[in-house]
Write a structure and sequence with these properties.
single chain; Rossmann fold; about 30% helix; 5 helices; alpha/beta
Length: about 150
């Protein structure tokens, strides 16, 4: 367990997104985590930068500190932004690829042969990518992702 955090790393789920554009995915991902807990008896804890006090000009450091304390990461890549720094550091912090999920909003119908663009710098890292049309689909996607 990481000193200063009450939950063990394997129960902490980091949620990343572009906070300027797509902050609305956070409550939906949290709802997916909560429903997974209710249906499995697990005690996953969603972790976001919004849940802590961030001193001025410290978002980068606080976000990476939080990521470092997590055993899972769910990152929305619909709108590129600062979350790409978090994605780059995931392996450095010991989060194994099977515990990482990238999600991206797509136009419907989703063509599995030609999915929406995700930067090759991100898509070649080996992390699972799931696409959603309606943001509420994230609830089920998260439930399926977490063991």
């Amino acid at each position: 367990m990481v000193v200063g955090f009450p939950q063990p790393k394997e129960l902490r789920v980091f949620i990343g997104t572009n906070y300027d554009v797509n902050i609305g995915v956070i409550p939906l991902i949290k709802e997916g985590v909560t429903l997974k807990n209710l249906t499995t008896g697990r005690r996953y804890v969603p972790i976001t930068v919004l849940d802590v006090i961030v001193p001025p000009n410290a978002t980068h450091d606080v976000s990476l500190l939080l990521l470092h304390t997590c055993g899972y990461a769910v990152v929305d890549v619909s709108h590129p932004g600062g979350q790409y720094v978090e994605i780059e550091r995931i392996r450095d912090y010991g989060i194994v690829p099977k515990n990482v999920l990238l999600v991206r909003q797509a136009a419907k119908p989703i063509d599995t042969e030609h999915p929406p663009h995700v930067s090759e710098m991100v898509s070649t890292l080996g992390y699972a990518i799931r696409y959603y049309y309606d943001p509420r689909e994230l609830i089920a996607i998260i439930q399926d992702f977490l063991p």
